[in-house]
Amino acid sequence: NAEILSSYSKNGVTIMQLYDGSKKIKAVMFNPKKENLALLRKNMFAGFEGKVELYKGELEVVVEQVSGWN
């Protein structure tokens, strides 16, 4: 679970900056469903499921599912 610090979507890709209470981490969603996009509001807390991958030397979460709880 993490707080969404920022998010933007372009060309079927959504990029987010998340904060889990100790660290910031980048997250990316490819071709997100409309119901997932509705959950991605700044300062909202949500649950994220996906895979942690290394991209350009940085860790990021490739999000597969979002569950809102704010």
The topology string of helices and strands comes to EEEHEE
Number of strands: 5
CA-based gyration radius: 11 Å
Q: How would a textbook summarize the main sheet?
A: 5 strands, mixed, barrel
User: How would you classify the helix and strand content by structural class?
Assistant: mainly beta
Give the terminus-to-terminus CA distance. 11 Å
Shape, please?
globular
User: Mean of the pLDDT scores?
Assistant: 89
The helical percent reads under 10%
DSSP helix count?
Answer: 1
Structural overview:
With 70 residues, this protein is mainly beta. 6% of the residues lie in helices and 64% in strands. The protein is built from 1 helix and 5 strands. Strands 1-2-3-5-4 form a 5-stranded mixed β-barrel. A hairpin with a 2-residue loop joins strand 1 and strand 2. The longest helix is centred in the middle third of the chain and has 4 residues.
SSE layout:
Elements: E1 2-10, E2 13-19, E3 24-30, H1 34-37, E4 45-55, E5 58-68
Keywords:
single chain; 70 residues; five-stranded mixed beta barrel
